[in-house]
UniProtKB/TrEMBL annotation:
<feature type="binding site">
    <location>
        <position position="306"/>
    </location>
    <ligand>
        <name>Fe cation</name>
    </ligand>
</feature>
<dbReference type="Pfam" id="PF00814">
    <property type="entry name" value="TsaD"/>
</dbReference>
<dbReference type="GO" id="GO:0061711">
    <property type="term" value="F:tRNA N(6)-L-threonylcarbamoyladenine synthase activity"/>
</dbReference>
<keyword id="KW-0479">Metal-binding</keyword>
<dbReference type="InterPro" id="IPR017860">
    <property type="entry name" value="Peptidase_M22_CS"/>
</dbReference>
<comment type="function">
    <text>Required for the formation of a threonylcarbamoyl group on adenosine at position 37 (t(6)A37) in tRNAs that read codons beginning with adenine. Is involved in the transfer of the threonylcarbamoyl moiety of threonylcarbamoyl-AMP (TC-AMP) to the N6 group of A37, together with TsaE and TsaB. TsaD likely plays a direct catalytic role in this reaction.</text>
</comment>
<dbReference type="InterPro" id="IPR000905">
    <property type="entry name" value="Gcp-like_dom"/>
</dbReference>
<feature type="binding site">
    <location>
        <position position="185"/>
    </location>
    <ligand>
        <name>substrate</name>
    </ligand>
</feature>
<keyword id="KW-0963">Cytoplasm</keyword>
<feature type="binding site">
    <location>
        <begin position="139"/>
        <end position="143"/>
    </location>
    <ligand>
        <name>substrate</name>
    </ligand>
</feature>
<keyword id="KW-0819">tRNA processing</keyword>
<dbReference type="GO" id="GO:0002949">
    <property type="term" value="P:tRNA threonylcarbamoyladenosine modification"/>
</dbReference>
<comment type="similarity">
    <text>Belongs to the KAE1 / TsaD family.</text>
</comment>
<feature type="binding site">
    <location>
        <position position="278"/>
    </location>
    <ligand>
        <name>substrate</name>
    </ligand>
</feature>
<feature type="binding site">
    <location>
        <position position="189"/>
    </location>
    <ligand>
        <name>substrate</name>
    </ligand>
</feature>
<protein>
    <recommendedName>
        <fullName>tRNA N6-adenosine threonylcarbamoyltransferase</fullName>
        <ecNumber>2.3.1.234</ecNumber>
    </recommendedName>
</protein>
<feature type="binding site">
    <location>
        <position position="172"/>
    </location>
    <ligand>
        <name>substrate</name>
    </ligand>
</feature>
Length: 338
């Protein structure tokens, strides 16, 4: 506690970012340090789990040091240590959890185990002065495409998910196929800016009644259409493929998210996760929200991708209700939301 405020150290190592942050009262970011491994994994075209955990081991302590220094606090000022318990890469999660447990044990502080997808949602609590329940949240990341209905801090229900690839995963796979590099989302977004989304027609959304999504068929359609065009000697611009693919993914996400908002009769829609950094997605959702009278909340792009400030923010509400983890808690690569 410092100046009457609850200070939480957040730690995030679920995938390929080693991150630590200090957040006051679940709202004010005092520091937010992210050490990205993108350059290391780029040469493999994707995250290599074994390499990721080794890099977390090497980077986590210096990253925590930087976060404390950046916040101008010492370990003794902290009220709790929060860490991502899952879902994510098991070896990577274990590194964060081990360090968080050691700190909590030595400092005699409560340990707070945070769900990674919930943490993404809480990026919005950092970015906006007021977030009112109930809301629907769409978390679109490299591993998840989750639609969540939340009525309170302790009641988050998963109402839809991807049946196959996550949206970010589809971006990454299509980018790799097109030779655009890793991570695929930003690479496709850059190419799409010079593309015509109607020049490379892809199958449109096949709407089913539920809130689940599917991107694997779309990815296959891109590959099939591309090969077909090559065989026929048609000239296809990568920019057009990127624009068409991006537009179709966003259309699918938009349909499902707004259908959920209507079905659950909520006034507010939250977006979160790495794919929510996509400029086209942000614009489309903003336009649609305005047309439908829905309040749309989005974190700034730096809080969309993996970071530890969102972990500390989510942990604050667990802190308030005394939801602490024992030091025996284990990492869970497939941790369910509720
Ligand atoms: O949330 P996140 O940082 O990590 C996970 O929890 O997975 O999301 C990473 C995903 C990657 O698939 C990446 O390609 C995608 O988010 N992404 C984007 C953009 N920036 C990151 N996808 C589309 N457009 C972007 N600008
Ligand atoms: Zn994430």
């Amino acid at each position: 506690m410092k100046n009457g405020r609850v200070l939480i150290l957040g730690i995030e190592t679920s995938c390929d970012e080693t991150a630590a942050a200090v957040v006051a009262d679940g709202r004010e970011i005092l520091s937010n340090v992210v050490s990205s491994q993108v350059e290391i994994h780029r040469r493999f075209g994707g995250v290599v789990p074994e390499v990721a955990s080794r890099k977390h081991l090497e980077m986590l302590n210096p990253v925590i040091d930087l976060a404390l220094k950046g916040a101008g606090v010492s370990l003794g000022d902290l009220d709790a240590v929060a860490v991502t318990q899952g879902p994510g890469l098991l070896g990577s999660l274990l590194v964060g959890l081990m360090v968080a447990k050691s700190l909590a044990f030595v400092l005699r502080l409560p340990l707070i185990a945070v769900h990674h997808i919930r943490a993404h949602v809480y990026a919005n609590f950092l970015a906006h002065p007021r977030v009112n329940f109930p809301f629907v949240a769409l978390v679109v990341s490299g591993g998840h495409t989750d639609l969540i209905y939340a009525t309170s801090h302790s009641d988050f229900r998963l109402i839809g998910r991807t049946k196959d690839d996550a949206a970010g995963e589809a971006f990454d796979k299509v980018a790799r196929f097109l030779g655009l590099g890793y991570p695929g989302g930003p690479a496709i977004e850059r190419k799409a800016r010079q593309g015509d989304p109607t020049a490379f027609p892809l199958p449109r959304l096949h709407t089913s009644g539920d809130f689940d999504t599917s991107f694997s068929g779309l990815k296959t359609a891109v590959i099939y259409r591309w090969r077909q065009a090559q065989e026929r000697g048609e000239k296809v611009r990568v920019e057009d493929v990127a624009a068409s693919f991006q537009a179709t993914v966003v259309e699918i996400l938009e349909e499902k998210a707004f259908a959920a908002v209507r079905a659950f009769k909520v006034p507010t829609l939250l977006l979160a996760g790495g794919v929510a950094a996509n400029g086209h997605l942000r614009e489309r959702f903003a336009t649609r929200a305005q047309a439908e009278g829905v309040k749309l909340l989005l974190p700034p792009p730096v809080l969309c991708t993996d970071n530890a400030a969102m972990v500390a923010a989510a942990a604050y509400y667990q802190f308030l209700r005394g939801d602490f983890a024992p030091l025996t808690v284990s990492a869970d690569a497939g941790l369910p939301l509720s």
